[in-house]
């Protein structure tokens, strides 16, 4: 099973920017794609964005135009550039294969304060 190590989270003010990284233990090109998810306290985990091995990037409506997902196959790493963040972007961010499995990483905490 592939393992992910997410990093780059932290405290940021509304309107600020943050870049998350997700390092995979296996080549990400082995999968149909990689997705970012997030989960805030007391809420269900929510899909945020997907970068498929081929094809169009996909985003949750509320992050479209503010977040950018990208990848570096040579480093087996997927990124999430978060711009103009909002308080509702707060949560633990995880990455996962497409299709998803039950093996989640530790995630990285993003806290957006006003």
Report on this model:
- By secondary structure, the protein is mostly beta strands.
- 0% of the residues lie in helices and 50% in strands.
- The chain is built from no helices and 10 strands.
- The strands form 2 sheets. It has a 6-stranded mixed β-sheet, with no helix packed on it. A 4-stranded antiparallel β-sheet has the order 1-3-8-7, with no helix packed on it.
- A hairpin with a 4-residue loop joins strand 7 and strand 8.
- It is globular.
- The termini are far apart.
In short:
This protein is mainly beta and 114 residues long.
What is the averaged pLDDT score?
A: 96
How many H/I helices?
0
SS elements, strand count:
10
Strand order of the largest sheet: 2-10-9-4-5-6
Largest sheet: 6 strands, mixed
| Shape category | globular
N- to C-terminal distance: 39 Å
Catalogue the unreliable spans. Answer: none
Topology:
Elements: E1 4-7, E2 10-13, E3 18-24, E4 33-39, E5 46-52, E6 58-59, E7 67-72, E8 77-82, E9 91-98, E10 108-113
Parallel strand pairs: 2-10
Antiparallel strand pairs: 1-3, 3-8, 4-5, 4-9, 5-6, 7-8, 9-10
Any descriptors?
114 residues; mainly beta; 6-stranded mixed sheet; 4-stranded antiparallel sheet; 10 strands; 50% strand
């Amino acid at each position: 099973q592939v393992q992910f190590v997410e990093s780059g989270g932290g405290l940021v003010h509304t309107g600020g920017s943050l870049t998350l990284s997700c390092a995979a233990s296996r080549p990400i090109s082995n999968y149909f794609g990689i997705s970012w998810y997030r989960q805030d306290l007391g809420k269900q985990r929510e899909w945020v964005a997907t970068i498929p091995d081929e094809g169009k990037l996909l985003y949750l409506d509320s992050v479209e135009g503010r977040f950018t997902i990208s990848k570096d196959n040579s480093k087996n790493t997927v990124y999430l550039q978060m711009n103009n963040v909002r308080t509702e972007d707060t949560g633990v961010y995880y990455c996962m294969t497409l299709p998803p499995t039950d093996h989640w990483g530790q995630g990285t905490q993003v806290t957006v304060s006003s």
